[in-house]
Every structure is written in structure tokens, then in C-alpha cells.
From TrEMBL, chains A, B, C, D, E, F:
Record note on cofactor: Binds 2 manganese ions per subunit.
A single MF term (Gene Ontology): metal ion binding
Family: Belongs to the arginase family. Agmatinase subfamily.
InterPro entries: Agmatinase-rel, Ureohydrolase, Ureohydrolase_dom_sf, Ureohydrolase_Mn_BS
Organism: Acetomicrobium thermoterrenum DSM 13490
PROSITE patterns tied to this protein: ARGINASE_1 (PS01053), ARGINASE_2 (PS51409)
Alphabetically ordered keywords of this record: Hydrolase, Manganese, Metal-binding
Binding site residues for Mn(2+): H104, D127, H129, D131, D208, D210
Protein name: Agmatinase
Span of the signal peptide: none
């Protein structure tokens, strides 16, 4: 298996631990997210390790790419359990987590794993869809219910901060308005406020690629028209510098539905910017 | 056949009548518009019925999707006649029309049908191309001549209001400047003025998907670089609230040339926003 | 072979000479640039010759499309030599050059050919990548080293003006800061200053299509996320009016990796705008 | 939803009941089998109802297409249970079953459902792969273990007759030689013998499309080179005339991996030939 | 426009005249046949002019490729008239015709044109489909009715010899059995007999590419499973040596639905073999 | 990098050495052969290591996959030299070579390397094309000239045995008839004779995937209609048992032009069958 660009090789010394969660468990429109971790790794070798806009280099970040969690197809519960155990273990050892999905449901395992150590966790959620249904297609565990389940995990459901949401049923939007910190079609302004409030509390970030416009990220299972731009997203990533991010996931990239792998390339660049922004400093100091 | 999301089932009580006009009659570059009505219907089930930005729900709009007008291939004139008859009949019964093409030539049938009832009709035309040629590839009836024919139908050709046009031959642009209300590369500002002037006169809207940039709407027969953005278009749709729109068509989406059906998804979302904007109120009142 | 839209037929009287350099010599990610000249020509017949935004028509520009330089595959050096000879010959006869690549390495041949006549040449370089490596994949001649080689050709390496660069290794960015006129992530403002400084000195423009965002130009070998928009580029082309552009190349369009040929269509439109902007006046005068 | 060509509408009077089992549960290489039932139905309208080679017409077969079993994604066990219940119910009412998958694991539910009524069932299995593993990717329930589980259901495992198998691990081939009626690379000759032996015992037929060569059936998840031809398969279907086939499934067609839908078209034609061969007589008599 | 490989340039001296009839007039499943003439010409340059199996070379055949008949889209009748006129004119000058479609309806124009000179014409028809309907999708002029119309043109409808037909409605097959010389699923044997009977009467050959199996010719509008092989077809072409073939058409190749242009390549090779077989001798003598 | 299925890890003890030569040096129609080695390796993990038809297992073959020779793009001569050196070195150590291309020109390097040790080498060449031109597109080194260059290397050019050739210019076919052991359109019969004559002399086998019909191997640069079938090829591979094969190459698979990777899967299966046939025995003895 190809490792992510400039991955270190040692687990013990790594501050950040990257792994793939190649699930395609709960597809409703189009699948293919299971291929994302490997294709993103492959395309990472077609970008530079250096970020001109950040002035930092991935070479200076302490991280290791451990490969993929093995998926036994057809049993979502055992898969969630497996990913949660892995994350719990890493978090217990003081590692910061960078998980590459996979469909969005894996974020539930990510949050559960991290929360085992950080009970006062905040979650920042960037997505086109609110993902707040209670049931979807007959199940409580789905990409469309994942943030409802996440909200239930948190000490207070208002610690789920949702940004740039532009799609949802009437019921879930109303539920969100009452129960989570939901921001419809808004990104930068509310995010800055939230960041101020969070301070140095532990944070988990869940980034669904479909928060972006389908023109810049066509390779995803349920594209939703009229999304945010890439530069908006990169601004957001920069705002996070200084936050105590203990977990980060990037989900729902679907290489088979992409054109010329531009969505996977973007995924690789997002990972690079995240690691340099959040991981670079600690190394320098 | 799959109906459009949340289509009612009764014709008699419906304020809006939706149908498909699956023509591919006059292709010059790439065809495939005949597949648009069914693919847009299919993708409509992958968006929500609720619009967070409008705060309204398609469930509250009185409309019915009647399926497609049957196309006897290879005879444009009989096809235009058939669509015109259908529209004339619907308009005669006081219905508002929402037609999904098909290539742009079907707009001529749509306008002719509506004008049978509303002789003082205005037409709002959003397109990359002026479509004002007199002849094209040997024919007076083509996607490239359709707005010339439409102008000839109207009581005054200046009631043809064209927005965001960014392509045309020198001759047709000059003809347009003299004969229609032509706005090159401009959208929002002139549209607001026109809307004020029109007041509550009956309006037909013809929306060629290629008015959008090819990045957001790649699935079309003759994409033209440097188009408008999706949020510009959605703003425009909102401006129309209050206009007396008696007919609306969405044309030139070509699913076989698309990537991951994002253009058809966008088409479905446009239809939703149009129906909620124009149809929601009348129901509430 | 199909000629570019409205190509004249006479070499002697043409002010601008267009030709294709269908090389795919030094691919690292994905190839296909060899097909660009012919696909761009083909798609040129699906846009108009008239530019509404410039108010000019390609019919009024004195140019001829001579077809492609014959490529003997597998020998980059002899190919560079051949293209350089062709350009030297054209420049010697007072022609202005418009070369359609091909991979970016052909720009080296273009610059060498033009510099044979214009020793005080400035180069304007628009690209996602700095292309300033000394070696790449074991070679000094590659799409990733081409601007280093170009810098070495110029009387002063600071006459290489690089705009909108958003990717590069730390080493090449630092080398660029010392040796070229490198502008990271910036376009319009520094360009205007440079244009003022250049005055009527001879200029060669090298435009790598990947300077644009992958959403608007997906058909390229090494797309780089977060690029400039089409309207930004078209603004830039207009700024050049009045510059003494003696050579222009458009490189790295890769039709096999495109969607619905939108990148090649864009290439055709760029060529039209360039020729009308730079070539229209001289004809009128 | 589009019904299969010439589907009747009444359940009570139908001899054959067709339904789709759109599962994609246990993908190891490429998915997409979930889309097969609907695409096969759609393509069925592009073939004729009449079979020149059989001299019969689908119009004369008593069958009804009931649509798809609803799939709650991500829980294979509950899905198997649901399909099994459906089949048990149909079989209990004396219906013959025609199930369109979905991945091959659904055949286990089909056999279990049918065997509830016919304890002396024989199974005819046509496939590239033996599918006789005990475990695969950590699970006992997978497209690669399905026939091992089927063999365990049958009164005698030698009643599992496997034809044209051309791929398997050494272990599963050896297990098959001891425990099932396994025929490597052979089709017509052993099949005729088996048909003679079976007489009028109840039979379930499981047809994995990858028994065919990838050239004629490229749209499948795990194509295996050097398969049988279409005319070989159609001969086999004719041999079955007179057999007491109480269940039939067609699995592993994957439309997203197909070219021009030729595999789905072939699937539609197989269904037509099966229904005319097995269902036509009972109607005539 | 690229000419077919080794096309001569003089009309007057050419024994065979080739032209394209790029119609897509009467699509029911998938279009794209309009692109076939140009793609076949392009791919002809990727095969050799020499045929090892025939021992002849296209260089020794007297033929000229005249390009395409101009298509005014959307009016089938005027298009048929135009093609018929062209063929009538060529036939009147003693030319032999090789027409590349386009959809199958153009064969009607080809036969009508040729019959103007040769009233005792026989037609050899190779196809998956009988194409003998009287009406199809509301029209008497369609790819599905074309041979019914052709039969009506001939002095005796039994002079329409149909081979390898494997699809049709019950009605059209029965009509064919009574009225044409229809051979279901049979090719070589009946063809040899027919050739003996025809002697040196004038013959028109209409070859629909879908007579071949979809595996070897996937790029067609209505592929029909279980077709003949390429070597069967090439045998057939050789049998025709000595026949007085005055017209030949190759129709229904659809490049947009192909894989790697293999169907167009095959089309180019068929044209080569036909011209060397039928045209080579006359040159030698 | 993923290794080929069941690759050993030790060079010293391996009888066979596998490596990739990812060249795309001399493309005339379509490229992409550079991606073949890695895609074939990847797909090898989707077939079994056991061959039911041979009764052997890849696990029992002594081979190692060493990865790819590094390609410095754009310089064919240095690449040929590098591959030749590698092969010379391996052959000198008594290894048998299995090279995966890459375009066909790499076979020249393979033969040159092997011949350094085995001066009395015979070459068995399976291909659609004779590849016997002296020059092609201005070069003596190309996929179309490679066997002319190979013939010049051999002690006697009649030791170049060419099978199933179905395409070539008149000149190269005539040159082949005089100078090589050329068999047009024939495979099995002449091969058996040649095998008898060769006895235990050292043999190099060069297998161009386009010897197969495009239906079974569409993923190749220059497909040629009417090729041999997969079972014909697998018979041929079995005949070779007992031959003293010291080198084997498989070339011209082009993944970007394939459908569902079936050509690469076939390539993986060919490699498995070759290694079990030629490598299995020697291990057992």
C-alpha cells in the first residue's frame, strides 16, 4: 500500500495518526467512498509537500499513516465497533486522529472513540446536509442520521456546531434549530464566534466533502447544488490554527464518480493543509 | 415512470402542471437532451422537498407531474404542433405550465401555446446564446433560431427580455440590439428593472441551463465558457416571486454528457425552487 | 485536418501564425496533451467567431493555422529542436507566434525560437506550478523544470514574470523568490505593474491551463485545487491589449481527462479572445 | 418504477413472481449490483417480447413483476431474513420465483425461502467462481461463501450441482469435489446428465452473470477471464424446458461497470428466454 | 475533414463513391450514429491499407471519399430526399455507392436512389432486427420500419433477402416470412444459395453493425445480445466477390456508446475489406 | 507499491524475476501502457492463485516481483539502455525474466538483455501486427519497428517466429515472408511445429495483448479487429510447457482505454498461467 505523502514510519513518536476507514455501508444514491483512502493517498504524491500559502511543509509535521482499518463487509455495527476501538486506543495514547472515510457514518465511531478520553468534546461539522434524521431507510445508523447520533453522544447537544448546511427535511432542520448549534448557509462568521467560545476545549472536526459545490467536488455520493467554494474552505481550515483539535475526519469522497480524480486531489490537499496548520506548530516549538 | 418528487396526482386541482418534452431534434454539437426529463425526475428523489433558503416545502405546492409528451422521432414540425396543442389546452384551463426539455426549440411550442391565452405575454430568456439567427444549418427551426421565432410571435418583439447572453454572431447580436430587449453579460440589474416594468402582466420564462458556467452545469449540448454561477441563478429565481408566471421551461440539460448527474440534480433543485417560489404562496393564501 | 475557426489560408500576409505542438513527452501523472491541438480546433467550430465582450470578430484578425509540427515520438531533444527551428523561422519573418501544446516543455522551444530575434524578451508565465526545478524524475527537460530552463535563456532571469503560482517545492519557491519575478497566489495587481514596466518590449506569454481551477478546467494532466476563475483569466487577457506580444502558447490541456470537452472549448475561446485582443487592432490600423 | 416488459398486474393469477433484491452488501472488488434490477427492467423495453428462436412470446407467460424488496443498508442479516420471508411466503402460495439481484449472497435467501416448501430441492449453479469458501474477509456471509452456505441448507450437499466453474482456491475446489456435484470448466454434457437424474424434483437455478466471458458481460463486480459464450448459455436455458424450476435468480450484474448497458440488456433477454421456456407451456396447456 | 484512408481525389475516374450520411433522426434507445462517418474516417488511419487475408491493397482500388451530405436537423423527409437525389445522381453516372450512416433509415434513401437506375435490384440485408414494422413510435419512417419501406420499393418484395435476423415482434416476423426472403438466425448457408440465384443482377447491400454481437460491436444504438462473430461477417464479405454490388451501406455505428472506438475501427476495416473485395478486381482488369 | 499476487520476497532464491517497464514512449494512436504494470498487479489480487485448469498454484512457483524500472520520461534510448542493463544482469545470474510493459518497444531491450547470455536465442512473437517496419513516424525505434530490430539482433532472423499476425503493410509482410518465420492468421498448427524444432534451445516469448480480439482485450493502444480468442491463447500457453523459456514479456495493455479493467485482469491471469506452466515444474523437481 502507498502511504500518504511524507508519512513518517514510527507510531510512538507521531503526534498525529492517520488511517483509512474504507466503508461504503449505507449508500442511498451512489457508493464508492470505500475507495477514497487509497486514491487520496495515491493522488497525494501528485501535490507538493510544501504549502506556499501556509509557508509550511508536511515534512515538518509529526504524523504517521497506518493504512486502513480492515472492513468485514455487510455488518455496520461490528465495523463501527472496530473503528471506535481503534480510535479509543489511539486517543488513550495521546494521539491526535486523522481519519479518512468512507461514508459519513464512520464519523460516529470517530467521535465515540475520542469522547472516551475527552468527555467535554465539541464537534465542528461542515456539510451540505444536516444529517439529523432519527431514522433513514429503516435504520438508525446511516450517513443521514449520523449527526443525530453524534448529538446524543455529546455532553450537551449544543456542542455540535453545524456550518454551511444547505439541505435537510423540515423536521430535521427544526430539530437542529432546537437541539444543535445549527447554521444554515453560513460559514465564516458563526465559525469565528464558535472558535472563540470553544477556547482550548478538545474539538473533533467532521468534514463532509459535499459541503463544497459539486463543480469543485463532483466525486461524492450525494452531491448537492450551490455549495461553498474551495477558497472558503481553505480559509476555514486556517481559522482553526490554535484550536485543540484531537480528531479530524474527511468523508464521502467517491472516486468512481469523480472526473480526473480532482475531488481526491482536493482531499489530499485538504489533508496537507490540515496537518500543516494543526500539526506544524507543535513540531516547531 | 418515476414522478417528480412530491408530485400530486390530480390534474383538476393542480395549479401547476409539469410535463417533459423529450426532444433531441436539432442537435449541432452533442445530443442527449431527450433523456433529461426522466433523469431529472429520478434525481429529484435525491434532494429534499424542503428548501432551507426559501423556508418552504414542495409538499405545500399544488402541482402535478403528468409525464412526457410522446415524441415521434424525426419530424420536428409535428412535434412542435403536438407540444403547442398540449400547452394551449392546459393554459386554456387556467393551469400554469412547467415544461422540462428537451432541446431549446420546444420553448417555441411552449410560448405559442401560452400566447394563445395571453396575447400580451412577456418572455424572460436566460441563456448563454442569443438564439436569434434567422436560419441555422439550413433550417428556420432550431435551437439556434428559437428566440428569433419567439420574438416573431410576441405582440412586440421588445417583450422578449434576454439576460446574461454571452455568445452570438455579430449579426444576431446586432439584430437583438435593435429588436429585442437584449442584455449582454448582465443579469441582476436589468432583470430587476424589467420585473418592475412588467408588473402583473403574464410572463413566460425560458431557462437554458447553459446560461450557467460549464463547471456547474457540464451536462449540456453546447457549453459556453465563462457563465454565471449557481447562486446568481438562485437569486434570480427569488426575484421572480410575485411575477405572474404562466409558463416556465428548463431546457438543454444533457445527461449523457454530464458528470455524476450533477447537472440533472441541479435541474431538479431549480424546479423545486421555482415551484416553491412561484407556487407556494398561492396555495397559502 | 480541421483548421481553427476562421483561419486564413495565406502564410505570407498573416500577422499571426498558429500551429500545434502535440507533445506528450514528459508525463508524470496523466498524459493526453498531444490530442489538444486537434480537439481545440474541432471545438473552435462550436463557438462563435464574434466576441460580445470585446466587440470584435475573429474574421477581422490576420492569422493562419498551419497545422501541427510533426512529432517523432520518444525523442524529446529532437522535438524541442524541431519546434525551436520552426519558431525561429517564423519569428525571423516577422510573424507573431501562437503555439498550442502539448505538454509545457514545448514552451522552452517557443521561447528559444522567439529569443533568437528578440534578445530583450520578457516572459509572462501563468500557471498553478512554479516549474522551477533543476531536475525532475531524472531529467533537466520536463514540464516541471521548463521555467528554470526558460529563466536561463533570458538576458535577466527577473524578466521571467510568474503569476498566480500556487504550488511548488520549498526549494523551487525559494529559488524563484531570488531569481525570477515570482508572484504567489497573486494575479491582477502585480500583472498591471509588470505591464507598465515592460512598455513596448517584446513579450512571450506562456499560459498553462492548470492556472485555472480544476472545476473549470478539469481536462489537464496535473490539476491543482484552488485555482483562479475564468473571468479572472479573461480580465488578464484584456489587460494585455497594447503589449508587444511576439509569442503566445497555451499548454497542458488534456482532452482524454476532460468532461464533455469543456476544457478544450475553453481553450478555443481563450485563443479567440487572445487573437481578437492582440491581433484585431493591427488589422484595423 | 418501470415494470419489466409485459409484466402482468395481478399477483393472484400469476404463475411466476418476479422481484428485485437490490443488495450490494458484500463487495470485495467493485459494487453496483444494487442498480441491476431497475436497469434491467428499463432495458427490457428495448428488446422484443417475442423470441424468434423459441417461437414464443412473453405476452403469453403468466408472470408479474412486483418491484424491489426494500433494502435497509448496512445490515446483511436483516436483509437476508427479509428476502427469505418474502420468498417463503410466495413459495407457500405456489408461486414460482424469479429474483433479480443484487450481489450473489441473496441467492442464500432465495434457496432458504424455497426450501421451506421443497425439502428435496436441487440447486443448479452457473458461475465463474465456486463460491465455496467457509469464511471470506472475516465473514461467513459473502458472495464468496454463498454456495457453501447453500450446500449446508440442502438435504444432501451433492444436490448442489455446479457448472462451468473456472475459479476457486485450491481448498474450495477440493472441498467441492468431495461435497458438491462440481463440474470444472464443463457445462453442457454434465448438465444433461444431471437434468435426467433430477427428473421432476423441484429445482432452484442460480445464475451468476460472471459465468459468461467478460467480453459479453463486462458489467459485473468480479469478472473472470475465459468464460462461456452467450449461445452456450442460451442452449443451457433451453435444456431446462420441462424441469420443475420453482426458483430462479440472476445475480451480479453491475450497471455502473458496464459498457452501453450491454450486460443489463443481456440480463433482460435471459429473463425473457427463461420465462418463455419455463413459463410458456403451463399457460398453453 | 479527414478523408478515408487512401481515398483518391478525383470523382470522374472513381469506380466507387463513398460518402457519409450523418443522420440521427429516429433514435429510440441511444443516438450518436451521426458521429460515425467522421470517427470511422479518423480510425481508418489506424489500420493498414493492405489486407493480409485478401492479399489486396486499398491503394489499388478506384474510390473517392466525398465527405458528408449536409444534414439539416429535424426534418427526416427532406433529408431522405436529399440523400436519394445524391445517390440517384451518382448511380446515373455509373458510380458504385458506399454510404456510411447514420441511422438505418438512410438505407431507404440509398435503395431508392440506386433503384432509379436498376429496377431489378436485389437487397441483401444483414441485421439483428427485422426492421419490418409498418409503424414505429407513430411514424412510418424509422430505423424500425426501414426494411418494410424498402420491400415496398422493390419490384418483388422477395428480392429483399434478410440474414441473421434474431429480433422482431411476432407480427413483423410473420409478415417477413410471407413477404420477404427472411432467414432467422441463419447466415452463411442461405446466403450462398441467394448469391447463386442472383447471378449478375444488381445488388444493394445494407449492413447494420448490430448484426454483430455486442461484445465485438458495443458502440451501437440498440445492441441485441447473441449476435454473429467478426470472422463470420468477414467470411460473408468474401462470398460477395463477383456479385454486381451497385450500392453498399454500413449503418448504426454509434461512437459515443463505444469503448476505445473498437466499433468504429471495425467499421473502417469492414469498409476496407468491402472495397478490396468488390473494387479491387475491376482495377486489375 | 502492491506486489503481484503471491510474489516471494527474496531475489537470490527466485527462479523467475518479474518487473514492470512502464513506458509509453512511442504512442501513435492511444497511450496508457505505462499504467499497466501497477494496474495488473492490483487486479492480480482479484483472481485466485490456484489454476483449476492447470491444477497448479502460484504459491508453488519460485518468483519475485521487483517493482518497476524507473522511467526518465522523454528519452527512449536511455530507457532502452536501462532496461537492457537490468535484463542482462538478471540473465547473467541465471534468472528467468518476466517483464510487464509498457509499449512494445521494451521488448527490444528484453531480447537484447537475454541474448547477451543466450546467443542462440529463438523469439516467439504473438501479435496482431507484424511490427516489421524499418522506420515509423520518423524513427527506427518504435512499437511498429520493434520486431525488425529484434530480427537484426538474432543470429538468424528466421529464429524470429511470428504467429497470428493479421495486420501489416504490404512491404513489411513481404519482408517478413523473406526474412522471418512469419505465420499470417495462423497460430496453433505452426506453433506446434516450431516448438518441436526448437527443442531445448533458449526461448524468449513476446506477447502483445492485441493479438487477442478487441472484444476480450479492449484496453490496448491499437486494437485490431478480428483477433484470436482467450481460450486459443490459453491453449498456446500450455503448449509451451517444457520449452526452455528464459524471457517472457506481456506488453501493450492500456488501462485508461479499458472497460472495467477486464484487459488488466486478463493480463494478471495470463501471468499466473505462464508462471504456473513454466515455473511450477522446475520447483517440483
Amino acid at each position: 500500500m502507498t502511504r500518504f505523502l511524507e508519512s513518517g514510519s514510527g507510531f510512538a513518536s507521531a503526534e498525529w495518526v492517520m488511517f483509512g476507514a474504507p466503508s461504503d455501508a449505507t449508500v442511498s444514491r451512489r457508493g464508492g467512498a470505500q475507495y477514497a483512502p487509497d486514491v487520496i493517498r495515491c493522488e497525494s504524491h501528485h501535490i507538493e509537500s510544501y504549502s506556499p500559502s501556509l509557508g509550511g511543509d508536511l515534512k515538518d509535521v509529526s504524523f504517521v499513516d497506518l493504512g486502513n482499518v480492515f472492513l468485514s463487509p455487510g455488518d455496520v455495527q461490528s465495523y463501527l465497533t472496530k473503528v471506535e476501538k481503534v480510535v479509543t486506543s489511539f486517543a488513550g495514547k495521546g494521539k491526535r486522529i486523522l481519519m479518512i472515510g468512507g461514508d459519513h457514518l464512520v464519523s460516529l465511531a470517530g467521535v465515540r472513540g475520542v469522547i472516551s478520553k475527552y468527555s467535554d468534546l465539541h464537534v465542528l461539522h461542515f456539510d451540505a446536509h444536516a444529517d439529523l434524521r432519527d431514522f433513514y431507510l429503516g435504520s438508525r445508523y446511516s450517513h443521514a442520521t449520523v449527526m443525530r447520533r453524534v448529538a446524543e453522544c455529546l455532553a450537551k447537544s449544543k456542542r455540535l456546531h453545524q456550518f454551511a448546511i444547505r439541505s435537510g427535511s423540515k423536521e430535521e432542520i427544526e430539530w437542529g434549530k432546537r437541539n444543535t448549534d445549527l447554521h444554515l448557509m453560513q460559514l465564516s462568521e458563526p465559525l469565528r464566534k464558535v472558535i472563540d467560545e470553544i477556547g482550548d476545549s478538545p474539538v473533533y472536526v467532521s468534514l463532509d466533502i459535499d459541503v463544497l459545490d459539486p463543480s469543485v467536488a463532483p466525486g461524492t455520493g450525494t452531491p448537492e447544488p450551490n455549495g461553498i467554494g474551495v477558497s472558503d474552505l481553505f480559509d476555514v481550515l486556517r481559522y482553526m490554527k490554535g484550536l485543540n483539535v484531537v480528531g479530524f475526519d474527511l468523508v464521502e469522497i467517491s472516486p468512481p464518480n469523480d472526473v480526473n480524480n480532482i475531488t481526491s486531489l482536493l482531499g489530499a490537499k485538504i489533508v496537507r493543509e490540515v496537518l500543516i496548520t494543526l500539526g506544524g506548530d507543535s513540531v516547531d516549538q
